[in-house]
Each structure stands twice: as structure tokens, then as C-alpha cells.
Amino acid sequence: MCGIAGMVDLSGNRREPNPAVIRAMADVMFHRGPDEDGYLIRRGIGFANRRLSIVGLADGKQPIGNETGSVECVFNGEFFDYPERKRELISHGHTFKTHCDTELIPHTYEEKGDKLTDGLKGQFAFALVDHHRGRVILARDRFGVCPLYWTKVRDEGGEWLLFGSEIKTLLASGMVKAKPDHKGLAVLFTCFGVPGPRTCFEGISLLPPGHKITIDLGGSGLAAKMEETAYYRLDFPTIGNERKGLDATLANAFEEKLLASVKRRLHADVPVVSYLSGGVDSGIVVAMASKVLGRAIPAFTIAIQDPKLDETSDALVAARHVGAQPISVKFGKAEIQATYPELVQAAESPVIDTSCGALLLLARAVRQNGYKVALTGEGSDEWMAGYPWHKANRVLNRLNLPFLPLGRVARKLIHTYWGVPKVSKDIIERSISAAGGYNGWHDIYGLNQYNRFRFFSEDMHRRVGDFVPFEDFNLPTNEMKKWHPLHRELYISGRCHLPGLLLNAKGDRVAMHSSVETRYPFLDEEVFEFLASVHPDHKFKGLGEKHILRLVAEKYLPKECAWRRKAMFRAPFDSFEINEHSEPYINQLLSDESVERAGYFQPSAIRYWRDRSKAYRQNAPIRTTLEMGLVGVLATQLWHHLYIDPNLCELPDWKSLKPDARVATVPCEKQN
Known about the structure:
- The chain is of the alpha+beta class.
- Among the domains are: 229 residues, Glutamine Phosphoribosylpyrophosphate, subunit 1, domain 1 (4-Layer Sandwich); 169 residues, no CATH class.
- It has 27 helices and 20 strands.
- The strands form four sheets. The chain has a six-stranded antiparallel sheet. A six-stranded antiparallel sheet has the order 4-5-6-7-11-12, with helices on one face. Strands 17-16-13-14-15-20 form a six-stranded mixed sheet, with helices on both faces.
- Strand 11 and strand 12 form a beta hairpin.
- Helix 6 packs antiparallel against helix 20.
- The longest helix has 23 residues.
- The protein is globular.
- The mean pLDDT is 90.
């Protein structure tokens, strides 16, 4: 993958961007493309690219255009069907000048015009200009693997649209001032991440997955016309129309889809490795990749420094089965504290999930060992109900009787016991309505949202008001009402949790911070559409998640790996507790002075709940909920210091914070 950035003149005067600004936007994302850079500056537009060369190593310099140069583009990502699409386009008379998959974009545009995204499959974000028509297209892939941020700014001559793979590119232009979006922070305190379009920065938007922006540049005094549209949306069958059949028959069909997806993602002109945990998702990816390659694929795993959470031995069982010797990276309390500033710097938003720092170190280990492409298992939990709250929701719903919703009563009793703050009935009902009806995500998102009412200051409550994040996502509520309730849950997973957290703070942003591209076999259009069509009982059987995947995994992995239940890794807040070994920034950021200076939270509430949380058993649901809120507070304070006001602690700001490039890696069996 790479990084892209640029400017588009919306005034209609076709002004030429300042080359120094375009270069500054590219330079700040050097980590996304250390291999080479490229620029396109014409009247009305300026594009930049930082390249991480993976396909077409010798001749893939961007921008890349069609035969005549009338259509040019910059691109971040990979098209996994590149060989087939290239042959098809050549058969239609197109001439390719490179061996790089970027060249698919201008030739596909010549074939399909504004519908070019219909003919592109993979993980991508790109900017294309048609010089003859005076048209610019910005687009992002179907599942949101590759980010694309944009904003509008005014100057003396009119208005510009700025875009980039990271928010840093917009800030580096010198034309955008970093200001907090308080409602964006409220989204974080509901969804564990920020899935877009709103971000934590005022005026800066994230193009949602499966969306594109089309800009007619105008001219002769006519202002540009800009339109954002969705070209793809996650979809599920109407309830009763789902695909049913014998488990074995459906598992065989799924195996064919997943194996083909893994094979496509092994296409590269550099070696490909894989992440490996003790779970079935990464395990089957490693096993299938090894089968395709005819040899064991190199694997990297995390050694969590907690015997209750460490999956090293489980990962080793899967690795040895396929003949791999995984490299392991230690991750404990010291690493959590040391990596958090860099993690938030990379994610450009507060990060509530304490496990994300492990993925930052894992990517760094991949790079230090000479690799720059890694397969990973994200998407499996989203498409096959892999998270524990699906089970909790199903258990509580089974308590319901006709005309007697005991499940709802049980939830209220649990919330009362946990001391959950009261939330207005209007906000609760609007949240449910915006998601097409109640589903399991309200159980987990609702608990996190209560932290907003625990910790926010009076000023934050005034700024956020009765804002409901679910209403921000433009969900297809009418269609969702027709789906099976589990499919509504899976849609929310794919629209909110996946791009907002997993593909941001655990995926693209932390991997590309170390110049590593991550690829996702479960985030394949054909894999998703097959799983979406299958009846929920084949995915979530009884209380057993990922049933159809486990049937396939039995063919590739030892049975204990295939049927091992998901283990959630989330380091407790006491990882940030203060002692003689703690990082100084923690106490500094949570001091009354710093909390009041930032203005988001109540210092008294932070003190109270830090003490109160210790009264509950480790990993008890109420303590977990409180710790997520406390980590959110700390992470927000840290984000504010790095990006908004560098006076909350002794750390430098985002421009000056330097990564600690060291990471210890040893073979798994040498771990203590």
C-alpha cells in the first residue's frame, strides 16, 4: 500500500496548487511509502503519492495514466485480481506501460467512466483526474481497509478540497488547524472507534467505506460541483430468504471461497507473511496460505505477558501443524505504557482498546525482519458473530416470553447493580431506531456510551447535547428491519466496529506506521457475500460462533485449534496504574490541572471511578466497562496533547514524537 494526498480547486478558476504545500503533505506520511514519491500538479489539481512498492517494483512510480495521459491517478492499496483484469483490458485494446496494478484504474475508467468502482476489487483509496472532462474522482474500498480523509478550506481566491490517507497530511498543508470535534469524541465513547464520516477533528471527514466523491471542476467563473455517493453497501437477505443446507455442503462452498481469497492475497513481487494468534481466524489463514505456497508461510505472533491471556502455546500448535516457526513479540504492561503515545499518534484518534499497541509492535517486527506484507484474520468475527456480546444478547433474549420481555427486565437489573448512569429514554429509543431495531450491539455499545455520562464535563454535555452517534452513520434502517436480528448485528459490526477500530487502530494505521501492508482474506467481496447469504444458524449455532468456519478449519488445523473459543485480549486499566516504573505522562494527563485544561471530563469523576473500579473483581463486566471508560479518558487526554494542545504533559506533540524502533523478537518456543 501507499499514501496519497492532494488538493482540488473548488472555486472554478482552475488555480494551480502550491507545489511546496503538496510536497509537505506527502513528506509527513513518508512512513506510508518510503520507496519513492510522485507528484501531479496541473491547473485545478495537485496530487501526491508516497509508494510502498509491492507489485511492479521497477516501474510503478505514480502518478500513472492511460495511453495518452488524459486520465491520471494516484493510488493506495492493492487489486488482487490484477492479472485477470489486466488480461481482460488488454483484450479490449488497452496498452499497459507498467507491471503495477495502479494502471488498472485509468484503463478501467476508460471502460466504465464514472462507474469505474464497479470494476475494481481489492483494498484501495485513489484519486483520479480526467483532464479532458475536468473531472476528479476520489474513492475508497468496499470494507474500509484504506482510509481517505478530506476537508474544505477557504483562502482569498475561493475554496479548496484537501484529501489524504491520513489526517496528518491535511494538518501538514498549513491550511488546516487542528480543532476537536466534540461529537466525534462522543462517537468514540459509543463505538470504541470513529468509523466516519465524522472524525475527532472539526471539519475533517472520513469518506465511508464503499463511497466515492465526484468533482466537476467547473471553469470560467463557474464553481466546481461536488457529489458524494455510495457505490457499494453491505447487504443481507430478507428474513426467510437466507441460504440453508447441510453443514458439510455449505462448509465446502465456503472453503472454496476462502481459499481463493487467500490465494489472491498472496500475489506480490515481495514475500508475504502472516500474523498468527491462537485463534481459528489467523490459524486457517496461515494453513491455507501454506497450502497454496507449498511451504510454511512465515508467521508472527504476540506473547502477552499474562499467563491467563497468552496464546503463544496455542499459536505454536497451529504453526507446527503447517511446519512454521513463528516469531514472537512480547507485550505486557511496560509495552502498553511505552507504545500508547505512538499508538494514538498513528491512529490520529483516542484508542480505547489496549490491545492495539500489540499490533503496532507486531507490524514493527515484521518490518525489522525484512518483510512488508502480512495476512491477517480481521473480518471473521464480523461476518460470523465471533464476539461474546452476541452470546450475551442471545441468552438475554431467550428470557423473553410473549407479552413479558424478561430479557429487558434482566438488562435493567444488571444496569442498576452496576450503577449505570441514567440516559434519557429519547436517546435510547433513537439509537435503537437508527439501527433498524434492537440488536446485540446495543448491549455492548450502550455500556460504553454510559461512560460518556459518567465522565464528560458539563461543557462537553452542552456541546454534545442529545447527539446520537447511530444517526450519524446513515444506516439503511428500512432494509435492516427486514433482516434477521443477527444480520442486523453483523451489519453494525461491518459498518462501525470494523472500519472504526479494527481497520484503523489495529489495521492500516498501525501497520503502515511501520511501512507494512496488511491484507484481509475475510474482507473479500465474494467471501462476505457468500457468508451474508447463509442462514444465521450456520454461522452462530446455539451459542457457538463461527460454526461454518470451524467445520472448514478441521481440514487444515488440529481439532483443538479449529474449535478453540475466542479469547478477548484487553489489558485492564491497572496497566496504567502509577508506580516507580510507570511512564510519567499518565499521572500528568490525569491530573486535575490537565483534565480541566482540556475541558472534556470531570476531574472528580475520574478520581471517584478510578478508586471505585478496584472494588470489583478483575475481568468482571462492570469493572471492564469502567476500565474502558478510564482508558478512553486517558487516551482522549493523550490525543488532545499530541494534536490540539501540547501542554498537558511532558511528551512532545505529534510532529516531534519519535518512535522507539526497538522491538524484541524471538522464536515462540524460546518464550518463558
